[in-house]
Write a structure and sequence with these properties.
The chain has about 140 residues and is an alpha+beta fold. It is about 45% helix and about 25% strand. The protein has 2 domains: about 100 residues, endopeptidase fold (from Nostoc punctiforme) (Alpha-Beta Complex); about 35 residues.
């Protein structure tokens, strides 16, 4: 139904999986944000032969109208940013008024978990080196 946020699984370079998000418009077309910018595409072009999942938001008709209005207000913009304004940011902003990307949040959380592990491992190595140097004296 118009105003719904659709999600479809895709792969970057045929290898790295990601989820592409868009907003359904009246008539079944989709508004999406991608590197070429915010644009309107046919549902088939959006889905590329894959099933889509609808993000459950339980929007009223007024909220659906607002989501479509937000989407259409950005058509033609070329402000795509993988970390700050990607397809998921765009679709969540259209649907809720808040730009958020779970995919970006997950990558950032994984990076900080990795960084924490590196710091812990580095600290352990330094402690072992210090202990060995203390025992060698």
């Amino acid at each position: 139904m118009y105003g719904d946020e659709h999600v479809v699984r895709r792969e970057f370079l045929g290898v790295v999986p990601y989820r592409h998000h868009g907003i359904e418009l009246p008539g079944g077309q989709m508004a999406e944000n991608s590197p070429p910018g915010v644009r309107i595409v046919g549902f088939g072009d959006f889905a590329r032969g894959r099933p889509t999942r609808i993000v459950s938001r339980d929007l009223s008709l007024a909220e659906r109208d607002q989501a479509v209005g937000r989407a259409l207000s950005r058509v033609g913009e070329r402000c795509y940013s993988l970390g700050e304004w990607n397809c998921e940011h765009f679709a969540s902003w259209c649907a809720t008024g808040v730009a958020y990307s779970q995919q970006v949040a997950s990558v950032v959380a994984a990076f900080f978990a990795f960084l924490k592990a590196v710091v812990i491992a580095g600290t352990a190595v330094l402690a072992a080196v210090a202990l060995k140097a203390g025992l060698a004296d």
